Amino acid sequence: MATRRYDPDRRDRIIDAALAVIAEGGVAGTSHRRVADRAGVPLGSMTYHFTSMDELLREAFTRFATRLSERFATRLEAATDLDALATAVVHLVHDELTTGADDLVLTLELYTLAARQPAFRQITHDWMRRSREVLERLVDARTAYELDALIEGLFIHISLDPTPRDRAVTRDAVRRILSL
């Protein structure tokens, strides 16, 4: 009789592998087989740990959104006043958010799913709420909303534009929203 191999990290490896597969080929190119191969697990592990591809995608995108939220919070929680917040946002947009090509693809894939399916919309809603909560330490709710939208838009524009964007333009836009 064969013994089962104890593998407590298998589910986590599958989730991380799903994110890698999505980053390479998009949601449309993601299959149980490709994720299992990337995670180095038997195909049967996929259905053991996840009842459907949607469940795996929800778990993977929730993990992704949580990781980005944590990076966002770490950078912005260090700010103690509006000037420091403006500086932190510029650094976040130009240096931290745009460094990983996978982050852009995963963000856009999540947005596309959220536009089509309410379950994924909840992931983006929770992500935006966490971002605004961090910003609301120093600004009111409306300003947090506007600044969060600016950060998201700049992240996408800077990531996709082949021409490097001037940090001064970002700084001016952020300072304008902050009324500085």
Major sheet, described briefly? Answer: none
Q: What is the CATH-assigned architecture?
A: Orthogonal Bundle
Fraction of residues in β-strands: under 5%
Uncertain segments: none
Distance between the terminal alpha carbons, to the nearest Å?
72 Å
**Structural class by secondary-structure content:** mainly alpha
CATH class: Mainly Alpha
What is the alpha-carbon Rg in Å?
Answer: 19 Å
Detailed description of the structure:
The protein has 180 residues and is an all-alpha fold. The radius of gyration is 19 Å and the shape is elongated. This is Transcriptional regulator, TetR family. Keywords: DNA-binding, Transcription, Transcription regulation.
In short:
This protein is mostly helical and 180 residues long. It has helices spanning 10-25, 32-39, 43-49, 53-77, 82-96, 101-116, 118-135, 141-160, 167-177.
